[in-house]
Design a protein that fits this description.
Blueprint (H helix, E strand, L loop, with lengths): L1 E6 L7 H11 L3 E5 L19 E5 L7 E5 L4 E4 L12 E6 L2 E7 L9 H20 L6 E6 L12 H4 L7 H11 L4 E2 H5 L9 E2 L12 E2 L2 E5 L1 H4 L2 E7 L13 E6 L10
Parallel strand pairs: 1-2, 7-8
Antiparallel strand pairs: 1-14, 2-4, 3-4, 5-6, 6-7, 8-12, 9-12, 10-11, 13-14
Helix pairs in contact: 2-4
This protein binds one DNA strand of 15 nucleotides through loops.
Length: 265
DNA sequence: ATGGTGGACAATCCA
């Protein structure tokens, strides 16, 4: 199966790039973040007739997540247990025997702000949830904009950027505690030790994308049984500049496994 | 240099 993640910064402004990416790459699942639309205004018609189911949890103006899929989603969960859920940052569904969790982790705004405290609390909720849910044989993939650069090689200027909300000890520790529940970073698994590979470029930095002044903030995190069968994991920047610019790119992976219908007892 | 720009939405908030 092929799974992908894309922070779209408004789904209504990114209809063409998303449609094009789905049609060209035919992923089994595409997770998107920052849809910025409440559920009754989601542009369902724009995605009709291309062979994808779509589920979403959004709100006005900010945040919002969605899942496009070939298979019909089952057992949908639209809020993170332990979190108040009012922020529309979490969406989970089963596709056959594979569970996908799509999150838009709070950015954190400023160090030690209320928003930063909420970011850490969000990770703690995720950690507790995964520890409870994931077993050694689980087939789970956690994907999305996690708003953390895991290592120095995941930012373009680690010395200068150290101590900011997406690259500091607190959020790295918080993310590692979630990963420790039994997940593997598919992109780093396939590109070990390689610097300069990013999923996000701040559009406020002049020519930031051209100069590759990026960050790796988006991830595909899989349990071992899926990571063992992952054959490729890549960052696709081709969607950028399709009509309007987007600050994030599509991250995708191929896993040599097909979702199986769960056994009925 | 504490800016820059893009998006939602209608004066600012968020990234």
């Amino acid at each position: 199966m092929k799974i992908a993640t894309f922070n779209v910064n408004s789904i209504r402004s990114r209809i063409d790039p998303v449609r094009q990416w789905l049609c060209e790459h035919q992923p089994d699942v595409l997770a998107v973040q920052e849809t910025k639309v409440q559920d009754d205004e989601f542009p369902l018609d724009a995605f009709a007739g291309i062979g994808y189911h779509v589920i979403f949890r959004g709100q006005k103006k900010y945040n919002g997540v969605a899942l496009f899929s070939r298979l019909e989603p089952e057992n949908v969960v639209d809020r993170l247990p332990g979190d108040d859920g009012g922020d529309a940052r979490f969406l989970q569904a089963d596709y056959g025997d594979i569970t996908i969790v799509n999150t838009y982790v709070p950015q954190g705004r400023e160090m030690h702000s209320d928003a930063f405290a909420y970011k850490l609390a969000f990770f703690r909720c995720l950690q507790a949830y995964f520890v409870e849910q994931i077993t050694p044989t689980s087939k789970w993939i956690w994907v999305g904009d996690l708003n953390v650069a895991r290592e120095a090689i995941d930012v373009h200027d680690p010395e200068r950027l150290w101590g900011t909300v997406c690259f500091c000890q607190e959020v790295q520790d918080a993310l590692e505690s979630v990963v420790s529940a039994g997940l593997i970073d598919l992109f780093r698994l396939h590109h070990p030790g390689r610097p300069g590979l990013y999923t996000f470029w701040d559009y406020r930095v002049p020519n930031g994308f051209k100069r590759n002044l990026g960050w790796r903030l988006d991830y595909l995190m899989a349990t071992a049984s899926l990571a063992d069968r992952c054959t490729r994991c890549e960052i696709d920047t081709a969607c950028r500049g399709a009509d309007k610019p987007s600050d994030h790119t599509v991250l995708w992976a191929e896993v040599a496994i097909s979702p199986c219908p769960p056994k009925k007892s």
